[in-house]
Specification:
9-stranded parallel β-sheet, 7-stranded parallel β-sheet, 196 residues, mainly beta, disordered C terminus
């Protein structure tokens, strides 16, 4: 477990920080206390699971032992222009509560399994959604400068890509692998200048 708490580290409000490079967090549980933070103003912050197949839940209000869980408040304590959550070894990545990336301009959510969006995602820059299998948008809206999504990234066995209720972005791209992928981003559900 990683507990980011300024009371335990001399040096202030962002005890995990880099002024000239990236910050990579590999942990199966993360707690970012309210007076704390993680920062990489000139690099990127990567939040990864240390156990392959472990899931990530965004918007959680708890800290269960079965997944890396981050609340909206904890996400707001990450300061970087580029935030990457998950990788190809991550289990299911789920958005269960509204997330406003107030201190991260560009965000990548990546999983080797399903990526499930069940609540709002808001950011000013680019949002990249990369699912090893399916992208399932059951609820919520996405508000971002641009949105790109890839489904079935881990194989060519076919996957489904469905955006949530509404997407507002200057560009929206949804693509699949070489398998038999079902891609759906209905025009009536997205406000975009360009659709690919």
């Amino acid at each position: 477990a990683l507990i980011v708490d300024p009371a335990s580290i001399v040096g202030g409000a962002q005890p995990v920080a880099s002024n000239s490079g990236n910050v990579v967090i590999n942990a199966d549980r993360i707690l970012i206390n309210s007076a704390s933070g993680i920062g990489a103003p000139n690099g990127e912050v990567d939040i990864l699971t240390s156990t392959a197949g472990r899931g990530i839940t965004l918007g959680s209000t708890g800290d269960a032992a079965f997944a890396v869980e981050l609340s909206n408040a904890e996400i707001g304590r990450i300061f970087t222009s580029n935030l990457r959550i998950g990788d190809g070894d991550t289990g299911q990545l789920s958005v269960t509560g509204a997330i406003d990336f107030v201190n991260a301009s560009n965000v990548t959510l990546r999983t080797g399994a399903d990526l499930s969006i069940g609540a709002d995602l808001t950011l000013t820059g680019a949002l990249s959604l990369r699912a090893g299998d399916n992208l399932l948008g059951s609820a919520g809206t996405i508000n971002a400068g641009s949105v790109s999504a890839i489904v079935d990234e881990s194989g060519a066995d076919g996957a489904t890509g469905i955006f949530p209720a509404a997407v507002t972005a200057s560009t929206l791209t949804l693509s699949g692998n070489a398998g038999n992928d079902l891609l759906r981003g209905e025009i009536g559900r997205a406000s975009c200048r360009e659709r690919v």
